[in-house]
Design a protein that fits this description.
Strand content: 5-15%
Distance between the termini: 39 Å
CATH topology: Rossmann fold
Oligomer: single chain
Number of helices: 11
CATH architecture: 3-Layer(aba) Sandwich
Largest sheet: 7 strands, parallel
CATH superfamily: NAD(P)-binding Rossmann-like Domain
CATH class: Alpha Beta
Length: about 270
């Protein structure tokens, strides 16, 4: 991160939820913000809405870089094109992904593979495509929005938990390998945030759940989450827990793992 500000920040999953909120916070701090998700029209609307809300020049504040995390073979060319346009990237905020809500026994392996491809391999592929740029300039920060489900697990989320746990494994290794290159890794673990994540979550046959989890709907706002995320990133924290009382489960898992297992067996989850 540049000492005089956030510099250039690339955000995936930027069309909604935490990603969109991060785009607003970073744009307000004077960053050049690269917006990525599948739909270019949605990204352009985000850029327009934030620019009007904050009275910013849209063309100088935002760069639009559509991507599909399920099509990671396109990322080397995408990264080259982005760097040709903007010249430099300082922070990548990996927000893109999907969730899953179904019993493991009722979830097709195809769905498990899809969740892993988008949430894990897509994120890893974009990281690897941009890594040489960070290594060459001896700086940069990967911010990975996983979940509390990346630290412990809940029923009905086996595929999602698997992918989020995998991200922690990969990025902790990357942290060790590139510490001397000045590259920072921040793992962000949100709890219940009021986004459309449960509406868009896939069920056992791959269709969308289409309903809002009660605890998700009553969760922290995306903007409040983004403010906490950005504050932690500025401090180059290794890990950020974001939520309300649900984050206590992380400490229960650490010190009383069998107690958390009993709690999760009886938890009313959707």
């Amino acid at each position: 991160m540049k000492s005089n500000g956030p510099g250039t920040v690339w955000i995936t999953g930027a069309s909604s939820g935490i990603g969109r909120a991060c785009a607003e916070i970073y744009a307000g701090k004077g960053a050049k913000v690269i917006l990525s998700s599948r739909r270019e029209d949605a990204l352009r609307k985000v850029a327009k809405d934030i620019s009007e809300k904050l009275d910013l020049d849209q063309d100088t504040t935002f760069d639009i870089a559509p991507l599909d995390l399920n099509d990671s073979n396109a990322f080397p060319v995408l990264v080259k094109n982005v760097l040709d346009r903007v010249g430099d990237v300082d922070i990548v905020v990996h927000c893109g992904g999907i969730s899953q809500r179904s019993l493991a026994a009722e979830t097709s392996l195809e769905v498990d593979r899809r969740v892993m491809e988008i949430d894990y391999f897509g994120t890893v592929a974009l990281t690897k495509a941009l890594l040489p740029h960070f290594v060459a300039k001896k700086s940069g920060q990967f911010v990975v929005v996983t979940s509390l489900m990346g630290l412990f697990s809940s029923p009905l989320r086996s595929g999602y938990c698997g992918a989020k746990h995998a991200l922690h494994g990969f990025f902790e290794a990357l942290r060790a390998e590139h510490h001397e290159d000045g590259i920072g890794i921040t793992m962000v673990c949100p709890g219940f945030i009021a986004t459309d994540i449960s509406l868009n979550a896939v069920v056992g046959d791959g269709t969308k759940q289409g309903t809002m989890d009660a605890k998700t709907g009553a969760g922290m706002t995306p903007l409040e989450c983004a403010r906490k995320l950005v504050k932690g990133v500025e401090k180059r924290k290794a890990q950020i827990l974001i939520g309300r009382t649900e984050i206590l489960a992380v400490y229960i898992s650490r010190f009383f793992p069998n107690l958390l297992r009993r709690i999760m067996r009886k938890a009313a989850v959707t």
